[in-house]
Design brief:
By secondary structure, this protein is α/β, with parallel strands linked by helices. The protein is built from 14 helices and 13 strands. It has two domains: 2-17 and 258-363, Rossmann fold; 26-250, Glycerate kinase, domain 2 (Alpha-Beta Complex), CATH 3.90.1510.10.
């Protein structure tokens, strides 16, 4: 984008700021902007196989960032094996425990891009929460989405003691809930590989888990804003660790400090893989755009694709959309040539603005 801007308007001052939601990249971005570092940890992946993931240790020396996508992300599950009744967030809990060993007192968990629908019971189990099934003396090990309906009792004593005094913050989409027509299984299950029958099964499992938590802790998490994040991972963090559920863009902005750049800008460019009906429900592009509107700025989104149901973005800060496609193409071709296509799209945007507003400072 920056090169595309300068191709047309070489005298422009371009401020490029890293920004993300709770999905892939949050650990790297926050470690980078705070002068922190990344720590590699061996964990159990969503399919139960070992893999290496990273913790972001921020420059304050007190905060760790856990990226759930790095241990339980959809990208870690081959398309032929996508079945959220079998995937687990166990590796996310292992990352949280590894963060404790680094001496942090604050853990930010980014909930996004997950390949799981286990309500975070895998994560909780790795942290010391025991989930029992009738007739079994030993708790479930690395439980997954298919285990939700089997749980008959829960003991969270060890986990609560282990994380006592640790502030847990969940960076998520607050429009994501556990149950109902907009519940996490129904909305996100299909993209994780769930069949219609599996979605019904998962919904029953989520409802059963909600009932278990209400019976044990008096918390009704059915419609808690954000609790559906990462297939319900946010729910376990909220229920067992008293986590604060917050919009990802606000958590990230505390460290990136976008206002310092927006107040000096004339034009804002942002982007997304595909603009659709979910973009305006707390996604990063509209989150940034709404912040830009405080300063009366024009916001243009440069995107890979535009769905038929994207109109809500125009009521949530984005003024115009430019697609990178330069003719009939495929997703694979767009991804393979993304760098060039994005540059060209940014140039097209600047040709229009150069003829009208002639911006001198552009925030990307």
């Amino acid at each position: 984008m920056e090169r595309g801007v300068l191709d047309i308007f070489p005298d422009a001052i371009v401020s490029v700021r890293p920004i993300c939601d709770g999905g892939s990249g949050i650990a790297r971005v926050l470690a980078e902007v705070t002068g922190g570092k990344l720590k590699r940890v061996s964990v159990t992946g969503p399919l139960g196989l070992p893999l290496d993931a990273e913790i972001g240790l921020l420059g304050d020396g007190k905060t760790a960032v856990i990226e759930s996508a790095s241990a339980a992300g959809l990208a870690l599950v081959p398309k032929a094996e996508r079945n959220p009744t079998r995937t687990t967030t166990y590796g996310v809990g292992q990352l949280m425990c590894a963060a404790l060993e680094c001496g942090v007192s604050r853990i930010i968990v980014g909930c996004g891009d997950s390949g799981t629908n286990d309500c975070g019971i895998g994560c909780a189990a790795a942290c010391g929460v025991n989930f029992f099934v009738d007739g079994q003396k030993e708790p479930l090990s690395a439980p997954n989405g298919g285990d939700l309906l089997r749980i008959t009792s829960i003991d969270s004593t060890v986990a609560e003691s282990r994380f006592s005094g640790v502030e847990v913050i969940v960076a998520c989409n607050l429009t994501s809930i556990l149950c109902g027509r907009e519940g996490t299984s129904r909305i996100y299950g299909p993209q994780k590989g769930a069949t219609p029958e599996q979605i019904v099964f998962l919904e029953k499992g989520v409802a059963h888990f909600v009932d278990m938590i209400f019976a044990q802790r008096g918390l009704d998490m059915s419609f808690v804003p954000g609790a559906g994040g990462a297939g319900g991972l946010a729910a376990s963090l909220y229920g067992f660790f008293r986590a604060k559920l917050r919009y990802s863009i606000d958590v990230v902005d505390e460290h990136v400090q976008l206002d310092d750049y927006l107040r000096m800008a004339d034009l804002v460019l942002t982007g997304e893989g595909q603009i659709d009906d979910r973009t305006a429900t707390g996604k990063v592009a509209c989150g940034l755009a709404l912040k830009a509107k405080r300063y009366g700025l024009t916001v243009v989104a440069i995107v890979g694709g535009i769905s038929d149901d994207h109109e809500d973005i125009f009521y949530n800060g984005i003024d115009a959309v430019e697609c990178i496609a330069e003719g009939p193409t495929t997703l694979e071709a767009s991804m393979a040539n993304a760098e060039v296509l994005i540059r060209h799209a940014a140039s097209r945007v600047m040709r229009f603005h150069y003829k009208t507003a002639k911006p001198t400072e552009v925030a990307i």
